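Entry:
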Amino acid sequence: MSDDQIVRAIVRPSREAVAELAVFGVATLHEASGRTGLLHHAMRPLVRGQRLCGPAITVLTDAGDNLMLHAAVEVARAGDVIVLATRTPSTHGAVGELLATQARAHGVAGMVLDSGVRDTAAIIEMGFPIWSRAVSVAGTTKERSGSVNVAVLCGGAEVHPGDVVVADDDGVMVVRADEIGVVIEGARRREASESVLRGRYAAGELSLDVHGLRDVVRRLGVSDDGPPADDVGRE
């Protein structure tokens, strides 16, 4: 008897909370979360300019088999993000045009695959968001057991069902369900602070002065061979 399982009932964050997270970019949320939850930088978008934010439906399977991805599409609700992890490293093309088509038809917001994707031209044309480790035509079987909605390690980050997955051109991260409120508040504070800094930098101030970084450079013993560049060559 296998220990693998399909868990259909999970606790999802409110739509309002997901919508608030979706306002922010991955870089801002990563900083606001204490620099946690970031997936490996190899996880890249199939199409640049797309964004993804939604509750995770997790999938754990053997490398080279996508049976449980098909099961996950049935479990997923509109707005969910399917997150695939494999028990051993994989770059197989676990998702192709047909699986992406049915996922989109069932309201899946997108997928994050710690493996590969294929039929990329067709998936790009349909506009279905996918972040993956690789593009590969290597096919998969549908013969091995696995699990849907268990804790997984995807791209080096732990993802639990119902955590929020956020992705953009900079990368992919996961916000733990029990930390969403804290991360949202941290992201708001960070954006407010950056708005002020943006204005100061646009007016010509330097971050070396604004953040007191000149003193840090001196403390580290870095030599400075002269005046600021604007003064070079002046009498």
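The longest strand covers residues 52-61.
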